[in-house]
């Protein structure tokens, strides 16, 4: 049976190479963490249904960059139908934090004039003893760059993984309710119908 959903949000996961983006996506969608991996996971797309509110299901289309971030050429088609972005850095690698602003700029330059909702993730928070970025300064950056929030996350320990995706989804939902983003923006959001009623036609995704 096809899953039913009320809203469909396209979300991209971006940040420097090795900050743990694929691990984060894997933990969220599969519930596991594999420390032994040597080669990149090579995931590039996952679907996850989020029971958002009673009676509201959000279908998240989650895009991972699968290695292209090394060349700083974001796979632009990923962003075309996305409305949200998790920007990820590694709390134990300061340069990955310092590049967050330019990641955001790159995304905004590409998607304009369409809106994009950002959430900041300080990843690998299990490595607290090797921390090179404080919680306070990361929170301040998220605020300065107009993001929906900042969370410290560990895919290894499964800390705040679901909450990070949920917080971003909530931020997108809020903007939608305030009419700051709409299905007409072509941002990968909608129920598959014009009046936002429940739609059970999962094939809509294939058109994305
Ligand atoms: N300590 C720790 N290591 C992690 C965590 N998430 C990922 N890693 C490790 O970081 C490395 C890069 O992870 P990967 O998901 O491939 O990063 P990506 O290049 O951003 O997709 C791998 O060796 C992972 O095992 C985490 O939450 N904590
Ligand atoms: Mg990866």
Folded structure, characterized:
This protein is of the alpha/beta class. It has a single domain, classed as Rossmann fold. Helix content is 28%, strand content 21%. It contains 6 helices and 6 strands, in the order βαββαβααβαβα. It has helices at 21-30, 76-80, 94-98, 100-111, 135-144, 161-177; strands at residues 7-14, 45-53, 56-64, 84-90, 117-123, 150-153. A 6-stranded mixed beta sheet has the order 2-3-1-4-5-6, sandwiched between helices. The chain is globular and about 40 Å long. The model is unreliable at 184-208 (pLDDT under 50). The site of magnesium ion has 7 residues, from α1. InterPro entries: P-loop_NTPase (IPR027417), Rab_GTPases_membrane_traffic (IPR050209), Small_GTP-bd (IPR005225), Small_GTPase (IPR001806). Keywords: GTP-binding, Nucleotide-binding.
């Amino acid at each position: 049976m096809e899953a039913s959903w009320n809203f469909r949000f396209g979300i991209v996961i971006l940040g420097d190479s090795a900050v743990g983006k694929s691990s984060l996506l894997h933990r969220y969608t599969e519930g596991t963490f594999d420390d032994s991996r040597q080669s990149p996971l090579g995931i590039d797309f996952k679907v996850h249904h989020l029971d958002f509110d009673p009676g509201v299901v959000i279908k998240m289309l989650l895009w991972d960059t699968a290695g292209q971030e090394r060349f700083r050429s974001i796979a632009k088609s990923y962003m075309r139908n996305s409305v949200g972005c998790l920007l990820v850095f590694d709390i134990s690698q300061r340069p990955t934090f310092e590049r967050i602003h330019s990641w955001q700029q790159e995304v905004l330059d590409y998607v304009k004039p369409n809106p994009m909702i950002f959430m900041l993730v300080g990843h690998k928070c299990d490595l607290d003893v090797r921390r090179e970025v404080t919680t306070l300064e990361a929170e301040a950056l998220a605020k300065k760059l107009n993001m929906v929030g900042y969370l410290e996350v560990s895919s290894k320990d499964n800390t705040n993984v679901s909450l990070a995706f949920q917080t971003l989804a909530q931020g997108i939902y809020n903007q939608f309710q305030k009419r700051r983003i709409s299905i007409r923006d072509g941002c990968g959001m909608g129920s598959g119908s014009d009046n936002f009623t429940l739609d059970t036609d999962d094939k809509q995704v294939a058109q994305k």
